[in-house]
Amino acid sequence: MNAAKPPSESLSKTELTAQELCGLLADSLQKKHWLMASAESCTGGLIAGACTDLAGSSNWFERGFVTYSNEAKTGMLGVPAALIAQHGAVSEPVARAMAEGALAHSRAQVSVAVTGIAGPSGGSAAKPVGTVWFGWCVQGRVTLEVRRFDGDRAAVRAAAVRHALQRLLALAA
């Protein structure tokens, strides 16, 4: 997977909304008696917000970490500062450490981590605006992926939320 040229995506009219995905995710997690945790940077708590918008979410959503700053990633999730310094906050190793840290600092069996560049500034040739790294940890097994979403800040963040939930739903099935 090439972080410099990740696939570009935009919302298709046939995709499920974040609310619909949360409903399906809730059903799946509750059937297994699993709890979920989120570790969010560029989405700033939008995943946790989408989950807790659903009535009864306390039955399956255990906690959300909003770790926007590098210090928060280190302090709340245990992401090594040296890892961030070496690879940058928007990277595969940091997404992995965030996903693993969310499980280590919660009672959850599944986690999702998101770290990216929502824009409009902050991008580079190697990591353009819209680049988002995802990490999902399902009972200790980590899956990582990078995507690049088109649009303004709100569009990038909304697409990242949907993708994070959709992929977690598939992995936790």
| CATH fold call | Maf protein
How many separate domains make up the residues? 1
Largest sheet geometry? 6 strands, mixed
Strand order of the largest sheet: 1-6-5-4-2-3
User: Helical content, roughly?
Assistant: 25-40%
What is the CATH class?
Alpha Beta
Strand content: 15-25%
Q: What is Rg? A: 15 Å
Which secondary-structure class do the elements indicate? alpha/beta
Question: What would you give as the CATH superfamily?
Answer: CinA-like
Number of strands: 6
Outline the secondary-structure elements:
Layout lengths: L7 E2 L8 H15 L3 E5 L5 H7 L8 E6 L3 H8 L3 H7 L4 H13 L5 E7 L14 E8 L2 E9 L3 H19 L2
Task: Please sum up the structure shown.
This protein is 40% helix and 21% strand.
Polypeptide structure, described:
This protein is 40% helix and 21% strand. With 173 residues, it is of the alpha/beta class. It has a single domain (37-171), classed as Alpha-Beta Complex (Maf protein), CATH 3.90.950.20. It has a six-stranded mixed beta sheet, with helices on both faces. α1 packs parallel to α6. The longest helix is centred in the last third of the chain and has 19 residues, at 153-171.
